[in-house]
Known about the structure:
The structure is a homodimer. Chain A is an alpha/beta fold. Chain A has three domains: 6-49, Orthogonal Bundle (434 Repressor (Amino-terminal Domain)), CATH 1.10.260.40; 61-173 and 306-335, Response regulator (Rossmann fold); 176-301 and 340-354, Rossmann fold, CATH 3.40.50.2300. The first copy, chain A, is built from 14 helices and twelve strands. Chain A has helices spanning 6-13, 17-25, 32-45, 51-58, 76-87, 108-112, 116-129, 176-188, 204-219, 236-247, 261-273, 292-295, 307-322, 350-354, and strands at 63-68, 93-98, 134-138, 156-159, 169-173, 194-198, 229-231, 255-258, 283-285, 302-304, 331-334, 337-339. In chain A, strands 2-1-3-4-5-11 form a six-stranded parallel β-sheet, with helices on both faces. In chain A, strands 7-6-8-9 form a four-stranded parallel β-sheet, with helices on both faces. In chain A, strand 1, helix 5 (76-87) and strand 2 form a beta-alpha-beta unit. Chain A starts with 5 loop residues before the first helix and ends with a helix. Chain A binds chain B through residues 1-2, 48, 50-53, 55-56, 61, 63, 66, 70-72, 76-78, 80-81, 84-85, 88, 93-98, 100, 103, 128-131, 153, 265, 272, 290-292, 294-297, and chain B through 1-2, 48, 50-53, 55-56, 61, 63, 66, 70-72, 76-78, 80-81, 84-85, 88, 93-98, 100, 103, 128-131, 153, 265, 272, 290-292, 294-297. Chain A binds a DNA duplex through helix 2 and helix 4.
Amino acid sequence: MADITIRDIAKAAGVSTATVSYVINGTKPVAPERQKRVLDVITKTGYLPNTVAQSLRTKKTNTIGILVEDILSFSVPPIINGISEYIENTDYRILLNDLRMLNSLYNRYDQIVHQGEKINQELMFLVYGAKVDAVIYVGMFDRDISGVIPNINKPVIIAYSTSEDEHTCFVTYENENISAEMMRYLINAGHEKIAVISGLEHTPPAQQRLRGVQRAFEEAGLLLDNHMVKNGDWERDSGYHCMKSLLGSAHKPTAVFAMNDLMAIGAMDAIKEAGLSVPGDISVVGFDNRDASEFVSPKLTTAEIDLKSIGYNAAQIAVEKLKSKNNGKNKIIIPSKMVLRETVKKQSCEWREQS
Amino acid sequence: MADITIRDIAKAAGVSTATVSYVINGTKPVAPERQKRVLDVITKTGYLPNTVAQSLRTKKTNTIGILVEDILSFSVPPIINGISEYIENTDYRILLNDLRMLNSLYNRYDQIVHQGEKINQELMFLVYGAKVDAVIYVGMFDRDISGVIPNINKPVIIAYSTSEDEHTCFVTYENENISAEMMRYLINAGHEKIAVISGLEHTPPAQQRLRGVQRAFEEAGLLLDNHMVKNGDWERDSGYHCMKSLLGSAHKPTAVFAMNDLMAIGAMDAIKEAGLSVPGDISVVGFDNRDASEFVSPKLTTAEIDLKSIGYNAAQIAVEKLKSKNNGKNKIIIPSKMVLRETVKKQSCEWREQS
DNA sequence: AAACAAAATCTAAACGTTTAACTATGTAAA
DNA sequence: TTTACATAGTTAAACGTTTAGATTTTGTTT
């Protein structure tokens, strides 16, 4: 079953190898009886064309390289899942290359930005060494990685991260609108003293999310007091400390928007530690909808990034580009959505509204 | 950079293609000056050998296929991470194929056992279609999948799952000893009325873990009362219901061993709902050390499977087999270890021991 | 200097496909 | 009847390597 070649099939069917090839690929018409004869031999012998030889001849590997920064990052497996789902119905395969960056990082976000050399090198390897037709680069943070992608003559799609380079394609997710939406949700629930626990403030998602917050505040005619914005570093601990400092300040918030679930959970730790209740005394919302948000108690209200769609779309663009059905500059931003759970309470101030 | 061939290098260096090949692969001695000349041209031009052509000629793809049941399963990414880590220092690549089984399953464990046909088909595709040199099959449950792996003439290593077929290699993890160890830990903490919330009782891990529990009980001269063993189905809900039924029974346990973290967390839900405290009134231990166990409150004491090692070892075996440095039947069982957190309390019965 | 052996290098076939260019066959138009 | 022209099929060259086996070069021994 393994070592049958097209010549064996041709001989057994009494035709030339070209005819067999035409039958297999449907590239040229073949008389029905001969077609059947060839097909019969193929099924009888279980022949499968040698893809390596095909690739050599056609200069196409039918393989898409996926370069992931770290498969252990929570956002990466769902993205790969989305890619797989799209790819499954094509004749492409996936070559996976894991940079395993988490292993080599202390402060995860800040250092990762400077890993350009390694990324560049692995990408060149994928394209010119492993001979993939296209590359999907799966970042682990939402950030601009334009400086890091080498200029190659094959499609490169960035997933999750973004690129400010005009010609680079990416598929990322929405931050600003969803943040505004969450704020509106808190405001509509009667909250006015809302605090924000930000991620590292110089990072794109932190900036975009803050912009969303500000927009919602403006729309509601509220003012976002600077004392109500604390800067964390995306980790649980920082959420805890930011919240502690908020609790110790002059005007305590009645609601907190932490820019990711980890910090939100840290904030909940601090609130509980202070003997207060979530959401009884303070409402909390996070961002990411990580598994943890369902296991923490009470369950965390948060925002969900449609990671699977990011992967699916990236794969689709890659394949379309390979089939020349798409030569635009694709810059896709997948909408995020709220997932309502148990950490937000309606602020009981109806008497005010009725007055 | 992309389309330079070995012939171009040969011409530029004034040697034959054979000599260039010998220099690149070190397969035959080449005079130092010529060697340098060739190397210079290669670095100057950035030439990279065409791996497709190499594969066609040598009949080796230097690619290991990974067939995963579902990349979304919590155990899979760390296994891939381990595989990557080993592979990184070899000249092999990874072709990933995700069966995405979770998507198509209602009751996850029971149905997955019957997915044999799809597995078989994808494996054949990987080996004979995609032309990989070896396959690592990454299961999502610890179970015997021997019936499902077709007989092919290339190395197949099973990771996480196992095989009862004598000739199949696998790398899995330890259940029985670690379960006994956890029991001993509870017993040493003074617990005697210990309940067990089992996973689906006909599954290998449930059976092995129960055996460990029984062993520890016997060693301690205790008897495991049948009423103290409840059968769950690995999901959170079932842990909750099992615990409720335990709490409503005649002799309430002072400690519970849930056979995975999800059920342990469900049990904690029930305990808290009953107005009791963990671990104040009832101690709880889980299994898997999933992320959730750090986010639940109090943090869950549990057992950790060394998933990364499973992947690492599987990759190592695969590569060794490809280099003919290993032709044994590898059946590796990676030890698991306890991770102590906050859900177990020493039972205050010192007065009894002192009496 | 000749004869031989060893080492270095080269030539060309092979790996298994695809496909351009050619040939053979049948059909319609002149 | 010839000519033109689709249509179906074949031949053989490529794709870019590796590697036997042939050949040349170098070194050693007489």
